[in-house]
Amino acid sequence: MIIVGAGQGGLQVAESLRAEGYDGPITLIGEEASAPYHRPPLSKAILAGTMEEAQLAIRGAEFFERQRIALLTGTRVAAIDRSARQVSLEDGRRLDYRGLALATGARVRRLPITGDGLDGVLGLRSLDDARRIRAALDRAARVVVIGGGYIGLEVAAAARKRGLEVTILEAAERLLARSATPFLAGFYADLHRGQGVTVELGAKVVGLDGQGGRVTAVRTADGRSHPADLVVVGVGIVPDTALAEGCGLACDGGVLVDDCGRTDDPAIVAVGDCTARRTGTGTLLRLESVQNAVEQGKSAAAALLGRERPFTAAPWFWSDQYDVKLQIVGLSADHDRMVLRGSLEDRRFSAFHFREGALVAIDSVNRPADHMVGRKLLDRKAALTPDQAADETFPLASLTR
Amino acid sequence: MAKVTFIEHDGLEQVVDIPTGWTLMQGAVQSGVAGIEGECGGSCACATCHCYVDEAVVDTLPPPSETEEEMLGCTASERRSNSRLSCQIRVSDALDGIVVRLPEAQS
Ligand SMILES: Cc1cc2nc3c(=O)[nH]c(=O)nc-3n(C[C@H](O)[C@H](O)[C@H](O)COP(=O)(O)OP(=O)(O)OC[C@H]3O[C@@H](n4cnc5c(N)ncnc54)[C@H](O)[C@@H]3O)c2cc1C
Ligand code: FES
């Protein structure tokens, strides 16, 4: 078995193959120098300086030995030959496979504007990126974050906690436009402003200015210039489908997979950020989260062994900013009713989302118990009513038994 | 550095050296102790790192934060008086030699 991409999803495939009883050779190939590591702390504890790099590793070296997982780091897979069932590495070597998993993740989206290549303009996806941003934060005074998605907001929070001057420039009329409700977006705009961050909405970046090759300012379409000695670009990611497309696998904004991680080649599965999932209901679902990588990894490993283990659990995600813990479960995009439980003023509340009377998602802010119970409610399709959700005295857990 | 003994639900014992300042979860997961998942990587967001700390030791630890307390109310296996989330316990010399038992299920 060969797995391309040694991140959260690729590692999970390798581990789950063993857990499912597969005893043959497993090779996990990753182009980064490090063994698989946790990415979420990169924009949180690593930038804040409260976590050492060594603590990021998901598994230690002895683990790979014990599980007989051959880990090739610093190794890039260049192409896949489906008829010969071989992958070729960048150094020319060719490796045979019986089953192949693609877990190539995603790359940061670049800004199509002048000045993107200036020093001090950085994106955040990998440990190397985080090292560069952390070093830049040590010297910076004025930080501009382009993009008000989760990564941008977390970087802004980390920079602000260091006492730097921080501006967020978001092109849309609200934060988190792709991934959260307007209500939650408003909450985060208030939170950041309350911490002294300048949040500019509808701010379309048109160019970056520099001096001696280093960035000095960000220009927006309204003619304003926002001075900066560090610019972090967090405008989303592009699924890395190059290998899949190169060998003719169907892709549509991600390698197309079913609920079991199967591509249209029975010998190849794909997991994590590089995928787009055709769900049972026929919609195309793109998720960028640890849970998605882990659960798809479990499903895909089973599929490689000819077993059916679909990933159908409600998607969940978290984000930490300042002292606010956000936990989201479900998909709120097409909700038609929202009710609140808890207190907005105390920053301890959950927003319950319903569609045609059925619970579809819960956004919990500093209410971890609501989130945990909510995961069960959604997985069991429990019949919670909006009135019960809003009534603090109604025991949510009673519906999970 | 502390030597920590993890005892899985089925009785399997594993002794792990954990550097000072790391969490119990990090030490366990990096060594591949099977009874701890640690899906959220220690952000106190998933409750898949639940463990039972030595009764004698648990009282000497800093108490759980409000968040941990709430998460402990939602563990997959039974919560006991010595239940903790292992990602919230930082290792110090004082923890050298402790025994940590793992629940039957994490999710
Ligand atoms: C800064 C940051 C913060 C995040 N915070 C959260 C959070 O709070 N909560 C949450 O749920 N999710 C969070 N995420 C998202 C989560 O980390 C990802 O969804 C998850 O890591 C995806 O795993 P993956 O295996 O699909 O991809 P990755 O972990 O990106 O792994 C893909 C790997 O494949 C390698 N690769 C690509 N092409 C090749 C090739 N041809 N040959 C060899 N190797 C190759 C890449 O170098 C990379 O190492 C965060 C992500 C980032 C970047
Ligand atoms: S690792 Fe997720 S709560 Fe401890």
Automatic annotation (TrEMBL), chain B:
One of its GO terms (cellular component) is cytosol. GO terms for biological process: P450-containing electron transport chain. Gene3D superfamilies: 3.10.20.30. Its cofactor is [2Fe-2S] cluster. Residues 2-106 form the 2Fe-2S ferredoxin-type domain. GO terms for molecular function: 2 iron, 2 sulfur cluster binding; electron transfer activity; metal ion binding. Transmembrane segments: none annotated. This is (2Fe-2S)-binding protein. Keywords: 2Fe-2S, Iron, Iron-sulfur, Metal-binding, Plasmid. Belongs to the adrenodoxin/putidaredoxin family. PANTHER family: FERREDOXIN-2, MITOCHONDRIAL, FERREDOXIN/ADRENODOXIN.
